[in-house]
Amino acid sequence: MTHDFIARPGKENAVTRDGRLTLNGTALNLREAKEGDAGPYTCEVSTEPARTLNHTLDIRVPPSVFPANNRSVLTVKMDSSVTMACHARGNPRPSISWSLKGRKLTRPPSGNRLMVTKAQPEDNGLYTCTADNGAPTTATAIITLNVMYPPKVRAEYKEVITGVSYSAILACFVEAEPMAKVKWYRVGDIPVDPLRLAKTVDARWRYSLIFNMVTLDDFGVYTCNATNYMGNASAVIHLSGRPKPVRYFSPPLGDENTTYTLVWDVESYAPVLAYTISYGNESDSEAQWVNFTLPGTSSSSSLHSSSHSFANLLPGNTYHVQVIATNEFGESDVNETFVFTTQQPAGTTSPGGDEPPGDHFTHPPPSPQDVVSEREEAEEPLQVTPTTGAPAEDVEGLEVEPTVQERQVIRDGVEAAESSASAQDSAAPTLTPAERRMQMGAFLTAIILSCFFS
Description:
Blueprint: E1 21-24, E2 27-30, E3 39-45, E4 51-57, E5 61-67, E6 73-77, E7 82-91, E8 95-100, E9 103-104, E10 113-116, E11 125-132, E12 139-155, E13 159-161, E14 168-177, E15 181-186, E16 190-191, E17 198-201, E18 206-211, E19 220-228, E20 231-240, E21 247-248, E22 260-267, E23 274-281, E24 290-295, E25 303-310, E26 318-327, E27 330-331, E28 338-341, H1 368-379, H2 392-395, H3 404-427, H4 433-453
Parallel strand pairs: 6-12, 13-20
Antiparallel strand pairs: 1-2, 3-4, 5-7, 7-10, 8-9, 8-11, 11-12, 12-14, 14-18, 15-16, 15-19, 17-18, 19-20, 21-22, 22-25, 23-24, 23-26, 26-27, 26-28
Helix pairs in contact: 3-4
């Protein structure tokens, strides 16, 4: 665009079609410059030949942007592709960036276009097209993308536990585009009673079925069903009266070596009929666990407490236990296995523990053969076979009961043997327990034989 300004000698001779242009000597002043004012300007001097001077005016224009074809809302089906576009103006030419819900998109846009392939529900939202050319302010345009998809239904709780005459709420969350129609059914596609049960929905698309006072007939399975023209989906919720899972309150480390007391409680709106207990050592498989049943507990509230003492446990061992509560509506779930450990025996250390300080000498443990032979020697009764009198076959296996005098002799002999052993202990090397028993047995045998032959 060429702007003509004709000047003649004398200010009054300045001629222009735009009042924003004024001549100040040889200078041309422009007020309130506009985008259309940009371009070349020519100053011409009326001489022979004429002399000219050209100037180019560049106007910086803040950016502006708008959706292509003025389509600010786009609706597509799931798994289809869609392209969003913006047109921007400004000087210099603006650059365009895209963001979704305030987060800049990492996918590379193609200039002023943004393509979404295989659109999914998570692609839904407000897309912002931002134009920037370095001006103090930027320009934005918003395009809303709606991806249509069948409903998604999620139960808030898969099971709601309550009791007769108590209240209860069943709830499900529904996502759908377009918005779904939600209905509640009992098993068998039986609609719920709209006159007795309240149905609500909040801003989070949480649909609720409210029982102000549960009756025995209300217990059972319910379905939250959502439908739009893209499809339908449902979630199943069980309204139950059975006990909730048991909660344990005992410490993991017991106070005793061979006993342990387990304390628990359970929430049940009906009386607890029985507790089924299973427990076993951690080294045992579940098939080896011990199972038994305890009578239930009654309570004026929905919270029931009970306990049990386990006996004949191994010291320093770890046990696993499960408790299941039963009422007229069924059994509680087992959501955890309780683990406890009995105390170590006094004077022992845990595996890998340090030995007690001080000088000490420990004999090596006897072999299994030594233990068996010593037990056999201790349990075998003393048998005496005289050298004269009855034949050996008549006295074989005969256990001779000593008289009172003989018992006194034996006691005196035992005391003498113990005194002798004590005296020898100080002078002779220390004997092992087995050697001492052999020495004592030989000494007693000699005393008894002397009684019979005296």
